[in-house]
Specification:
eight-stranded parallel barrel, alpha/beta, TIM Barrel
């Protein structure tokens, strides 16, 4: 089922993001985590590309495995920075052969240690436009409730978002956030900008203090004061932080559900435990 059909539903859609492992051992472990997550009947799984502009050789293997293993839709991420049209075409053909319907189109992380950044694509809206010309994929794009880290302002970032929607994108998946007020404000801002595509809330359960620190260094994400104090006070207590993350995300998701959010998209980090506990609490 494509994104246009999925988000016509009046119910909140549940979906999960996973990333391709970098070795066979982690690949086997991921399969076990997917089995746990599948019990919650997600509408689809999304699969990221390698981080920091790196190509990950297991991406196609994971996609093929998911196609054989679970009876649900798969939404691969497709990045364009440093990719030629020929490279994108090859990947498109692979995805078509798998029966893929949905794509999350991204610029991608800037590659490390190279000056050869842009080939045929420099921005996500260019990839969206190309995909619309070449395929029948339903296309999702990324949104940033507090603005992309490279944007000068939230206003500029929303202008870039509108370019992606005007190029043919069907849905918006947000970056993780911890303050629902930021999300609600974002919805109002993009509506004012003339953007009417469904917006799916990105949820990342806090698993460790180190993980949270890394994420907030890479993106514009505000941590509520009380939550930040608890994390700093108990940063070395792994069980406390994990349970705190479950508790916080449970409250956050319940409020989003009460406000009729279109979808909850969980960034699982290839671990089912926290996400499954949150879903047990809210469903």
């Amino acid at each position: 089922m494509n994104l246009r059909e999925i988000y016509k539903s009046n119910k909140t859609i549940i979906s999960f993001e996973i990333f391709p492992p970098d070795c066979k051992e982690k690949f086997t472990r991921l399969n076990n985590e997917i089995k746990v997550l599948s019990r919650y009947n997600p509408q689809f799984f999304s699969l990221t590309c390698g981080a920091s502009g790196k190509k990950n050789s297991y991406s196609k293997t994971v996609l093929e495995n998911l196609s054989q293993m679970i009876k649900t839709d798969i939404m691969p991420h497709l990045t364009c920075i440093s990719s030629s049209k020929d490279e994108i075409d090859n990947h498109i053909n692979f995805l078509k052969d798998l029966g893929t319907e949905n794509i999350l189109a991204l610029r991608g992380d800037l590659p490390e240690n190279t000056t050869d950044i842009c080939k045929d694509f420099c921005h996500a809206n260019e990839l969206v436009e190309y995909l619309k010309q070449k395929t029948n994929f339903s296309i999702a794009v990324a949104g940033y409730p507090e603005g992309h880290i490279e944007s000068a302002s939230l206003k500029e970032d929303i202008e870039n978002l509108k370019k992606k929607i005007d190029s043919g994108a069907d849905a918006i998946f947000t970056q993780m956030f911890f303050l629902n007020e930021k999300f609600y404000s974002y919805l109002e801002r993009i509506k004012t900008a003339g953007i009417n595509a469904p917006v799916v809330a990105g949820i990342m359960p806090i698993i460790s203090a180190k993980q949270l620190e890394k994420m907030t260094q890479l993106a514009k994400i505000t941590i509520p004061g009380e939550l930040k104090q608890k994390i700093e006070k108990h940063s070395t207590d792994k069980n406390y932080i994990k349970n705190l993350g479950i508790e916080f995300s449970t409250v956050q998701c319940k409020e989003l559900l009460a406000n009729d959010v279109k979808g909850l998209h969980f960034f699982t980090l290839n671990r089912a435990y926290s996400t499954s506990k949150i879903l047990d609490n809210i469903l």
